[in-house]
Amino acid sequence: MTMSISHDTRIIEQFTRWAANFAAQPIHAEAESMAQTIAACDVAQGTRVLDVACGPGIVSCALAAQGANVTGLDLTPAMIDQARQLASRRGLSAAFECGNATDLPFQDNQFDRVITRYSFHHMQNPQDCLGEMVRVCRPGGRVVVIDATPEPASQQGYNRAEKLRDPSHTSALTRTQLLSLGEQAGLTPIFTQSYRLESRLEDQVAQEDRPALQALFAEDIANGTNRLGMGAFHAADGIRFFFPISIIVWRKDPA
């Protein structure tokens, strides 16, 4: 229990510090990946959606703009503040509240769609979160997980780099591991797809953590082995790299 509380505190501290910066980064609302996210959720007017670990509400607002009835939940109050501000600026109706992804404060079978994006790699026990997502999803509804999924050969290197970049990172699962969680939860896979998000290293790390991470990326580029699984390269504006992302869509079958 102590470990869980400590990790939750680490997440809150990290994302309180980064809340405004995180919300403003274009990478999180990149058009092509957002279009894929919306398509994966397949919402219509009035579709009941829960966005778990919603962060600054970027996905929540995108789905609300499609007519969905959206609730966003996040552990970090500063992120919920950002989400409410974003919905207000866009004139959208969406509900946001603080809560823990592994103990969702909602009734069974309450939502048509339950989604989480870029969150599982922060969780010590992502299977617990997925179990809660399944519980609150209605039979016949969709459960959608979008997260970084490094290749097996680079998983260790990827996690090493991410822990330097973000102290709240735990472990990014491979696509096979993520699909296995869905199988264990009794879900039926509908489809999977992948995309890569390009970013500049300097935009993704605090200044005090930058030297160690730059050295790690520079070594990976010099070796030409891509042991980090991020395809890092030198560009005119510094080191650039890719986040390897998978979209997994499951159906919750009737009992």
Structure description:
This protein has helices spanning 2-24, 31-41, 58-64, 77-90, 126-136, 155-165, 175-184, 210-223; strands at residues 48-52, 69-74, 95-98, 111-117, 137-148, 188-200, 233-235, 238-251. The protein is 40% helix and 25% strand. Strands 1, 2, 3, 4, 5, 6, 7 and 8 form an eight-stranded mixed beta sheet that branches. Helix 5 links the parallel strand 4 and strand 5 (137-148). It has a single domain (2-154, 169-197, 244-251), classed as Vaccinia Virus protein VP39 (Rossmann fold, 3-Layer(aba) Sandwich), CATH 3.40.50. It is α/β, with parallel strands linked by helices. The relative contact order is 0.14. It starts with a helix and ends with a strand. The protein contains eight helices and eight strands.
**CATH domain class name:** Alpha Beta
Query: How would you sum up the global shape?
Result: globular
Count of spatially separate domains: 1
Written as H for each helix and E for each strand, in order along the chain, the element string is HHEHEHEEHEHHEHEE
Identify low-pLDDT runs.
1-5
Count of DSSP E strands? 8
CATH architecture classification name? 3-Layer(aba) Sandwich
> What is the alpha-carbon Rg in Å?
18 Å
Name the average pLDDT.
93
* Helix-strand makeup class: alpha/beta
**Helical segment count:** 8
Under CATH, the homologous superfamily reads: Vaccinia Virus protein VP39
Q: Could you tell me the strand content as a percent range?
A: 25-35%
Question: What percent of the residues sit in helical stretches (DSSP H or I)?
Answer: 25-40%
Largest sheet: 8 strands, mixed
